[in-house]
Amino acid sequence: MADVTGNDSTNADSAKAGSASARSTVTPATVTPAIMTTWRSLAEVPRSLGPAIVTLGNFDGVHRGHQAVLTRMVADARECGQVAIAMTFNPHPKAVHDPAHPPVLITGLDDRLERLADTGLDGALVVRYTLDFAQQTAEDFVRTYLVEGLRAATVVVGSDTRFGRGNAGDVDTMRELGEKFGFAVEVIDDACAVSQSGRRWSSTWVRELLDAGDLPAAADVLGRQHRLRGTVIHGDALGRTIGFPTANLDVSAGMIPRHGVYAGWLTVLDTRDNALAAGLVGSPMKAAVSLGHNYTVGGSDLRVEAFALDAVGIDIYDTEVALDLVQWRRPMLDFGSLEALTTALDEDVVWTREVLAQGHDST
Predict the structure, then answer these.
(1) pLDDT tens string 11-59
(2) 239 and 151, same domain (yes or no)
(3) What values do phi and psi take at 209, rounded to 5?
(4) What whole-number distance in Å separates Cα of residue 285 and Cα of residue 325?
(5) Would you say the pTM of this structure is higher than 0.85?
(6) What is the pLDDT of residues 213-236, one digit of tens each?
(7) Which of residues 193, 216, 247 is at a domain's end?
(8) In which domain, by residue range, is 256 found?
């Protein structure tokens, strides 16, 4: 089972290039929100579950192609009186099969699950992907996970889905197994995955835009702003000495975009026992963000630092935070002196306020 992709058929680009500002040709269905249950193993799935509409995939980024498919699936499940379930994998299969070249993931698992929940899914099964897991035959996988585990009445797959040992299973295999075990198979309509321009919504597209620093376009493909997640650690306090005390992030999840200065939102997600940060949890703060190497002082390490514009003096050390990046301003530069750097930072702050005042709310 070298590549269980499922609905990541939306990760393949079409031959046509397109603008990220284009809209999907399919409007996602309106669904009644549900509180999604997350299971970390098949043993946690209740025996009373089902009947279910099930889909599977890596869902990196949970972009608008994924969202269109998932919200339509949820609407169908509501109409049929069934539950809508997504199966996803952690770590990413490619990281297991080729650990020397792991894929760069747009989102970490926590944010992936949060975004999956936003589509209205009833449940998500996170399968621990291992080489042993990958040795299952296509039939064993379907029987164990889809039929006996999730009680699938319908399985939704992409046209290029592959599953089972050595990627032996494909759509035709799934249909044959559906007939054998008594579930229907629905193959995703490509229209659900294509923007109005003709280019498929895809994780590849998002990565290209992040590498280019085009955060507004990436946000359009994602349906929200790009997020980094991490822990606030102690830095060298240089920012504090020049009037710009920053929160230094040890990034644990989220693809690092083009280096430079950004406008964004800093949000405390978990205090991690820092009582001084309790009143800040869940409240986005305007932030000027520097991401890269501080050439002016000879810095050689990658730094991710956020200056909270209107929250000077806060103590958020050791907390888990999110950085939602809105717009790129400039590359990291060597200004030659701390005085010139301070002047540039003043200008960055003014620009950040202007950008965030234009209605770019945290998402």
Answers:
(1) 333 323 233 333 233 333 344 456 899 999 999 999 999 899 999 999 9
(2) no
(3) -70, -40
(4) 12
(5) yes
(6) 999 999 999 999 999 999 999 987
(7) 193
(8) 225-356
